[in-house]
Amino acid sequence: MELSNILVPIGGIVALLFATFLFLNVKRQSPGNKKMQELSSGIREGAMAFLISEYKVLIVFVVVVAALLFIASYIPGSSMHWGLSLAFIAGAIFSAVSGNIGMRMATMANARTAEGTKKHLSKGLSIAFSSGAVMGMCVVGLGVLGIFSLFTLFHNYIDLGSIISTNILFGFGFGASSIALFARVGGGIYTKSADVGADLVGKVEAGIPEDDPRNPAVIADQVGDNVGDVAGMGADLFESYVDSIIATMALAAIIGTFFITTSSIDKNIIIPWLLESPTQSDILNYVMLPLIVAAMGILSAIIGTLVVIFGKGKNIYGALRNSLFIATILTAAFGGVATWYLIGRLEPFYAMLAGLIGGIIIGLSTEYFTSEKRKPAQGIAEASKTGPATVIIQGLQVGMISTIIPIIAVVAAMIFAFELSGFYGVALSAVGMLSILGVSLATDCYGPVADNAQGISEMAGMGREVRERTEQLDAVGNTTAAMGKGFAIGSAAITSLALIFTYMLTANILLENQGQPPLILELSDPYLVSGIFIGAMLPFVFAALTMGAVGKAAYAMVEEVRYQFKKFDLLKSDKNKPDYERCVKISTNRALKAMIIPSLMAVVSPIVVGIVLKPTGLGGLLIGSISTGFLLAIFLANSGGAWDNAKKYIESGNLGGKGSNAHKATIIGDTVGDPCKDTSGPSLNILIKLMSIVSLVFLPLIIALNI
Amino acid sequence: MELSNILVPIGGIVALLFATFLFLNVKRQSPGNKKMQELSSGIREGAMAFLISEYKVLIVFVVVVAALLFIASYIPGSSMHWGLSLAFIAGAIFSAVSGNIGMRMATMANARTAEGTKKHLSKGLSIAFSSGAVMGMCVVGLGVLGIFSLFTLFHNYIDLGSIISTNILFGFGFGASSIALFARVGGGIYTKSADVGADLVGKVEAGIPEDDPRNPAVIADQVGDNVGDVAGMGADLFESYVDSIIATMALAAIIGTFFITTSSIDKNIIIPWLLESPTQSDILNYVMLPLIVAAMGILSAIIGTLVVIFGKGKNIYGALRNSLFIATILTAAFGGVATWYLIGRLEPFYAMLAGLIGGIIIGLSTEYFTSEKRKPAQGIAEASKTGPATVIIQGLQVGMISTIIPIIAVVAAMIFAFELSGFYGVALSAVGMLSILGVSLATDCYGPVADNAQGISEMAGMGREVRERTEQLDAVGNTTAAMGKGFAIGSAAITSLALIFTYMLTANILLENQGQPPLILELSDPYLVSGIFIGAMLPFVFAALTMGAVGKAAYAMVEEVRYQFKKFDLLKSDKNKPDYERCVKISTNRALKAMIIPSLMAVVSPIVVGIVLKPTGLGGLLIGSISTGFLLAIFLANSGGAWDNAKKYIESGNLGGKGSNAHKATIIGDTVGDPCKDTSGPSLNILIKLMSIVSLVFLPLIIALNI
């Protein structure tokens, strides 16, 4: 116990120190010539402009929700604690800070990566990856420190019967969710509306190349990569990371509650092998285990990161894969030791391992179904012979079929973890899957940096050799980004499962405390079935709304670009410069406006269903939404990824190459896939986690209203 | 009781007599000139060729499954009755016979409709609708008679503890399912592969018009309409119809079991208001009620049908709507009286009404989201301004958003019915929804007949006036076909819900009989959750497989048409005639081969999951597959319908009309939508019902294996 209290904060602090070291190291690199610096700072300013606009809305949102949480804690019988409100604010701030730093870093690293690539490919890789690792380390460091501090502050978990401390931690998760909502959903709408808008007028109408500096939307497009893929991905995984840890801690704390209050709830379901009467320090060890595993993961991730940064090889994909591989093995080894030391048995470790392996399988499956080197994407490319319609049909098929392996992986990990360590094991498997986040997020965020570097080298005219090298970086980045998406979806699903099991037990404890019969979530209850049906429907509606939002925002961008082309005569003379800022502003405003309805839906529907269809219906809603949310997210992300790479496959000279009819057909596929893979698909992660955490936070209130 | 025993068979016989009357009446009409007769008999022969090939495979399938069922009834401890095997064969034969008659009629009516239209629009309508009504009446008549005979034969429902008679009836449903599988899935693959194959080479490559007799695939295309939309739709709804009746009877019989065996299972959940100890004749009344309602529905449907047949108005859509409207009101009135007479209270009647209204709401919602007169389809047409990609994205959105109303309608009907009459009420609401099937199926099947008539008038060169009239018939047929699809999906969902509630109770009775604890389908059981996840995945995989099958079969057709164009020099000289038969044969063989894997998946997965994840996991599988199956089916059907009508909207002169870029963009949308709305979407109905009925039939075996 003493050791945990030291190890965990040390882990968090080391992560932040390492992030600082990397940050300074990247900053030290040459930012290239003036043109490159100009472009880079244009992107940075645009990205910051988005963040600032986002913060303006966010502050209102956070303050209002925090106030509501505070007030709710004084509603008689609700048993919500005022600390929830504080934890909520902390979660929001911690997530926002890590996103902000990550984005600053990414937008600083793009020109430096391009410049570094001039010297050597591995130099460019090192810079791009370092910048991604800054985000990764901030996320895990701030996540661990945030949870640990709150837990220490409200450390009355054991004399309760009301599990205050974990309930308060849910507030932290809720805060993180709110940022993720804005960053992933808002960011997702932003990035695609800018991209589609820029392409429709630039590439299609005016016939100028992608990333042409005459296109007023070109900076907004580059900003979008950072907003969506860096800040959005970071906030999404920050949320998964802290949620998985919190759920595990909550389940352990519930065990503590059980043994003190002599509850009638079946204890085996939480941890089957638990001793008859664990001591307080036993329980505390169970509570601390996920944090320790996280701390171990941080150390492993640092080592994995160093492999890439100091590597000199030419095989970029190999370097990235090796770093993940090393981090995984180290985490497994450290995690095993820690578990044995803290708990005295290895079942929880195996559960964790199941999650770790499940995550890797999902990543590999995504890679298979989307890579241009594999059959599925090549099959889509083949279908282009008979035109765009068959490209679309084939892509839909690939996406739907690609759901099999991830579902089986999650189910197998869950069953395995449950058999070994009950619900506690399921939650731990989520922790395991996310434990190497420090390095896996670095791999994800490296992608958009490489993409930006490629864009800058193009716009700054850095010559063929540099362009070819940055293209190489970018191509690998596309693959890792696709894998990262699969991983993010899988981890969202298993984290949500852990949250829903926590929901059930928490509900029963709350009901028992109030002398009520426990919550029975029986499938023979039509209210539960109704909840499942409605829950299953919400991801479809959410995906449609986010897709629609992209369309509307893109349309505004199209109008603006056309207007500027005319007003400044950009295409024929180079006297005037385009007004990049206005385009950035349009994307920002439209994206933030367009996310209001889907966001409200995500926050409000669990509360409404909880009141109308009772906590039973809400349980159904959660499981229904997790299952279709998971499936739809994979379907949309993989269809989109496969369409994208089918196009790339043709562009690299197959089936007639660029400009052929086959190419045109795959461009249509790619355009359809864009909002699927970058907006609607990833947004679903947020939906399912947010609904679970909202349900947990408001559960006391819902129960109070239903009695 | 006495009265029921008379009324029910009378209802069934009257339906068959009425069908005979209509059949003879249509046959009496002039089949037109020689050219028309030739075309019509070509289509008929092609359709029959498909049926005969189908039967060859079917006979093997039915004999094997029947033998397995027979053997399974002798496995010690399985408590399956040998009568299941007999009922299975009966279900298969009854469904096949009604499909066969319906198809004969439809392929006989097409030329007659075209010829009738020459005289008067209402004459054509009358013939086309009459032919549809033949199918409708055969389905309801044979359905009711089949169930009634089996029930009378195995009439030992009350002295049991093993609910033999209803268990045997499930065999009838399983038989019907098998035919539906072949007709809907095989037929769906057939129809789209022929359609897509004919269009790709004819319209796109050779530039000849649709329905051009030089195209060798043109007859296969016409045959496809009958195979998919007449026989497929008929078998699909035959299955829903008998399943809903059987489920209701089973639930009533379970009540009987409860009161005799003093079971510990909560009786309120089945029929909350039931007297303390109902008499045998009370129970029998509950058992007979759905059959009586069905009989009343038959009489109402006949009256509704006559309204169209003897109508003289010009408003086709109005006439069809009125007939549905009249049938609905009459069914409601008769149903209310019958319920009051048999049961002595009206709650079951209200439950039935909830289903009836729910079905109508789903139909109207489908109409809204797919009609060319409404915003959604017009919005897709608007999106064509920015090319095919936006058409696709917009269509995906429309499909996803369109899930809201059907889900809410089904949930509301279920909750309402459950609150009033428990599970029995839920099953009755499915019966209510399907009670007007005699006339609603006529409305569905009228569509393909009108479509064929239109094709024949085109191919036989019957002149502009006739063509315009048949076009009018065809346009309305498209709308009613879309509504019919929505209705078929909704009824499949609620029928499956009734089946799954029956599954739960049956499992508990079987377990109790064997001294086992009851089945607990608690959401806190990871096996149940795993089942839900896997179940939710299966519709995605099934949809992908059926979509892929269309692609493969269409490709074979493309090759054949190209080959014939070359070999017979069809495009330049008219010396040779195309070999229509070979194309029909190719579609037939490919479709039947392509359906093997998806079909096996549907039959085998519940059994495998039941054994591996236990009956608990199987319960999850069913609810998971119903929820996503329902959602995906609506999504695919409505996206497809809306794309189709967006194209039609432009073809009728909007946004540039035929030949414009906008038109080309919507053609791509329509092609994508074709397998969605005519193959994958409707096939999902079969998947969810088949998996439910397979689970019910094999439940005794699964339980025996799990003990």
Summarize this, please?
The structure is a homodimer of 707-residue chains. Chain A is an all-alpha fold.
Summarize the structure in words.
The structure is a homodimer of 707-residue chains. Chain A has 707 residues and is mainly alpha-helical. Helix content of chain A is 83%, strand content 0%. Chain A has 19 helices and no strands. In chain A, helix 1 packs antiparallel against helix 4 and helix 6 runs antiparallel to helix 13 (437-459). The longest helix of chain A is centred in the last third of the chain and has 50 residues, at 464-513. The radius of gyration of chain A is 24 Å and the shape is globular. The first copy, chain A, starts with a helix and ends with a helix. Chains A and B meet through helix 11, helix 12, helix 14, helix 15 and helix 18 of A and helix 11, helix 12, helix 14, helix 15 and helix 18 of B.
